[in-house]
Amino acid sequence: MTCVAGSSTPTAEDDISPLWKYVTKIDKIGVGGGNCKFQCNYCQLIFKGSYTRVKSHLLKIPGQGIRGCSKVTPQDIREMQRVVVDQAEPKVRKNPLELVPLLLPPPPPPPPPPPPPPPPPFNATSWSSSACSGIGASAIGSSRQESLEPKKRKAAECAIVGKSSTLDAKEHLDAMISKMFYSEGLPFQFAQNPYYISAYSFAAENLISNYCPPDINMLKTTLLQKEKANIERLLERIKNTWKEKGVSIIIGGWADEQEQPFVSLMAVTEDWPIFLRAINCEGKYEDENFLAVVIMETIAEVGPQNVVQVITNNAPVCRAAGMLVEAQYPHIFWTPCVVESINLVIKNICEAKDTEAKDVTYDECRWITTIIADAMVVKNFIMHHSMRTVIFELFANLKMLAIADTRLATMIVLLKRFKLIKSDLENMVNSDRWACLEVDNVQKAQFVKEKVLDHLWWEKIDYILSFMDPIYQMLRVAIAEKPSLHCVYDMWDSTIERVNVAIYQHEGTQEDEDSTFYSVVHKILVDGWDKSHTPLHCLAHSLNPRYYSRMWLDEAPNRVAPHRDAEISRERNKCMKRYFPDIEERTKVNTEFAKFAAKYDKFGDHDSSHDRGIMDPKIWWIVHGSSVPKLQSLAIKLLGQPCSLSCCERNWSTYSFINSIKRDNLNPKFAEDLLFVRTNLRLLSRRSPQYMQGENKMWDVGGDAFESFEGAGMLETACLSLDEPELEAEVFADARNGYDVEPIKVGSNGRKF
């Protein structure tokens, strides 16, 4: 073998790295290290690198950045493997490598032992008594006391040293864990992950000798497949309920930072969402046929007999795809997302657009747009300058949140927050600190002060919140991850009535008089209902026993039971024809419905009537519906379904994670498994009782929005929930502990398509 210096004398390196003799070293690269230019003795090709690349080339090891030798035979490979085992490994065992410890601060010296206790005071009486008992007894007692004292001192010293050793070990482990965060740039939010906490707790409670954490290959292969199998086993009991409880297919569409679209598909029954998969639909998301095929493939996977509805956003392509699905499966209904319809209503009221044609909506609602614009000016003036922000935080107990544009009801959230911090803003602009603040825009500073101290401006904010609150509360009910399909019809009807009352009371208008402003708002609300309701909403409303109870009927004037409402009855009959195409079977079901609605037979007893108004509708059907089995089965399915895409639109939505997978060019099957495991682990963790308890309550809120160390600062929460004060109390528990970080806009990177 020809070495770099021209000598063929074997070296110690050749003994430990025997495959060098199968190549020819041409030239050394660099001053230090083992990299050199070498030529393979088999294929005669020239490469650069270390012994690892030599080994990968000769033994044809993939994934090492060098191609395998084309001339080496299987027999040659076996011979080289034998050489590696027989020659190199014994020498490595004979001369083991020296382990280099982590660079950690030296442990503090153990504390000195405690001083011996002082001798007891001299007592003449006790001494006299001892003396009377004899010198021999005194000598024996003294000897025994002297022998016990060193043992007690030694036990005390061991306990102190052991406690000190435990504290040293804890500090050492804390330092190692912190190095893991700092060196890899892990977000600090990760420290709240329950799986991170339980892993170290398990390791502390179970002594596992010679344990080594799993390497990258185990994490990507064996352990990933095991966890996927474990999750599928956990989800199996949920899937087994689909036949009885029914399931909704939820399809959310998103586009990432590069405007690349994809759809995520989930199956939801009651409040149990299951992530199925995500599909890249670049170049196809405007094709209703492509989307319909994706939906129908998912229906086939879940089981057509189990699916109640398919929920998508309100885009025309989704509506067209939904119609294709209904044509293929008449018993499955396409349902637009109710939350999107409500949010559109809020935008149409609060963001009236000025058009060339005379628009009565703009004329009546532009004052709302002006109030919100003024509030944005005040917020931006304070939050876009660090010194003003500091002054504001001296007076305020709540944060001036930066609200992402992609969130729901952003205008209402902003005004509600202004209402909560009204006194803080007034104290701030009246303070000496504000007066002494040097600003580059004196006019804008004066504008901010005038608005904050303008009582008429605050009265208008109160008015906006008063008539928008029913719409806002409806949005909160619809976005909750609870069955709400059966509540949609009544929510819209009640909301319109409550908005009417709020506006008429403020204007002092009589019920028989017209209000131009209410007419505009009413038209926007009715348009929102027309775009979002389906016959399925009416059927679910008809099967809710609460709406037949005297308690509900007496809550408001002019209320009638669902079977007496012409529109509801018409839409209900449409559904019955699709669910039961056979005329004889449909007649039986309609007869069962008549017994339920009119309280005939067993439905007329006291318990059945009493429970209609107070019992959960699904539980009521389980308890009292056995006499009408077909209608009972249908009611149990419909009363457990959602009405929105809220489970697809988490703050840890999958779009950012999928974008990372695409950026890293991972294997498609591996990426699909990883996404399945990751998303369902988070969904399952929310079912744990510990999720809403302790310091790590709601640990995944805001977790995906942070890169590197951004998680050290405050979290942006207005875009995560409509419960701003309640949620902020949890997330901002440490917000006053000295952090000086700009708010982070969670969810601002993705948008719906």
TrEMBL record:
Signal peptide: none annotated. GO terms for molecular function: DNA binding; protein dimerization activity; zinc ion binding. It is found in: Nucleus. The keyword Hydrolase does not apply. Residues 103-122 have a biased composition (Pro residues). Keywords: DNA-binding, Metal-binding, Nucleus, Zinc, Zinc-finger. It comes from the Eukaryota. InterPro entries: DUF659, HATC_C_dom, RNaseH-like_sf, Znf_BED. One of its GO terms (cellular component) is nucleus. Residues 14-76 form the BED-type domain. Residues 99-130 are annotated as: Disordered. PANTHER family: OS06G0658400 PROTEIN, OSJNBA0013A04.12 PROTEIN. This is BED-type domain-containing protein. It comes from Quercus lobata (Valley oak). The lineage of its organism: Eukaryota, Viridiplantae, Streptophyta, Embryophyta, Tracheophyta.
